[in-house]
Amino acid sequence: MNILVTGCSRGVGLEICRVLLEQGHTVYGIARNYTDGFKELAIRYKDSLFFKSVDLSVPAEIHRQVFKEYVTNRIVLDGVVNNAAMAYDDIVTNLKLEKLETMYAVNVFAPMMITKYAIRNMLLHRKKGCIVHISSVSVHTGYKGLAMYASSKGALEAFSKDTAREWGELGIRSNVVVPGFMETEMSASLTQEQKDRIFRRTSMKQATSVRSVAETTVFLLSEKACSITGQNIHIDNGTI
Amino acid sequence: MEQRVLDIVNVVLENRSKTKVNNLSPDDKLRETLGFDSLDLAELTVRIEDEFGVDIFEDGLINTVGEIYSKLG
């Protein structure tokens, strides 16, 4: 499969790339920065891993930068993983509009524009492709300080469900992976005590496995998941 | 150009198991005359853009074949 992965340079995005590459797929990665972790993969999979630096906080540039100059119509796209996201952690009374707008550009508008052009690629090639969005458990379980961030992920979940309904008759699927708290740079600003408190809320009392999130994402992209669309798949150690 | 548009229209009709047409008139309506639904129109847009580099729906709805010709002209 040819898969476009955003936010490919670290955390769960990097792990999704790793699982895809291990299974012999080709990955078109997008991120702002080229990291050491990504470089390691790029050396090992030099023929099947590609990278382009794109700033997804400017969604108007996505058409040109991603789909005209990188994943063009000559590439048959099998799937997309909209993983790139930024956190905006504060209480609601401190909300800053400018920060909110930047976060929505990256977390909502960019994945929507990428979905638009990915579906266009799939239409051109009559491909029964698959879109996977990476959300967050904070959409479903409240956390102090995450109202703004969770709202952006909630928007993405709604977008996915309706995309699934709209394009299902052409075999194009859309699903959401909903991870619990993982030990990634995204949650690096939390203290150990804050993390422990979050983990105690889960059935399994620990951080969500990044590998499990990545494996599930790749499963959803695969033919094995051909009857799964419009779903939110929770991988959160049982945050119930 | 008009022949290429006819070919593309027929590719879309064929892909959706609809009856192909022998010719197009500028007055033909995409929905009423050709029987395109919104997903057919999406595929038509994508195929025309791939061939001509023009997104015919970029600034509003297109209703007739003649409007496509003028976008591409």
Most extensive chain-chain interface: A-B, 9 and 9 residues
Quickly give the CATH architecture of chain B.
Orthogonal Bundle
Into how many domains do the coordinates of chain A divide? 1
CATH superfamily of chain B: ACP-like
Mean pLDDT of chain A: 96
Layout: helices, strands, pairs:
The complex is a heterodimer of chains A (240) and B (73).
Chain A: E1 2-6, H1 11-22, E2 26-31, H2 36-44, E3 49-53, H3 62-68, E4 79-82, H4 97-124, E5 130-134, H5 147-167, E6 173-179, H6 192-200, H7 210-221, E7 232-235
Parallel strand pairs in A: 1-2, 1-4, 2-3, 4-5, 5-6, 6-7
Chain B: H1 2-15, H2 38-52, H3 65-72
What do you see in this structure?
The complex is a heterodimer of chains A (240) and B (73). Helices cover 41% and strands 15% of the residues of chain A. With 240 residues, chain A is an alpha/beta fold. Chain A has one domain (2-235): 3-Layer(aba) Sandwich (Rossmann fold), CATH 3.40.50.720. A seven-stranded parallel beta sheet of chain A has the order 3-2-1-4-5-6-7, sandwiched between helices. In chain A, strand 4 (79-82), helix 4 (97-124) and strand 5 form a beta-alpha-beta unit. In chain A, helix 1 (11-22) packs across helix 7 (210-221), helix 3 runs parallel beside helix 4 and helix 4 (97-124) packs parallel to helix 5 (147-167). Chain A is globular. The termini of chain A are far apart. The mean pLDDT of chain A is 96. In chain B, 51% of the residues lie in helices and 0% in strands. The termini of chain B are close together. Chain B is globular. Chain B has a single domain (2-72), classed as Orthogonal Bundle (Non-ribosomal Peptide Synthetase Peptidyl Carrier Protein, Chain A), CATH 1.10.1200. Chain B has three helices and no strands. Chain B is mainly α and 73 residues long. In chain B, helix 1 crosses helix 2. Chain A binds chain B through residues 73, 119-120, 123-124, 126, 167, 169-170, and chain B through 15, 39, 42-43, 45-47, 49-50.
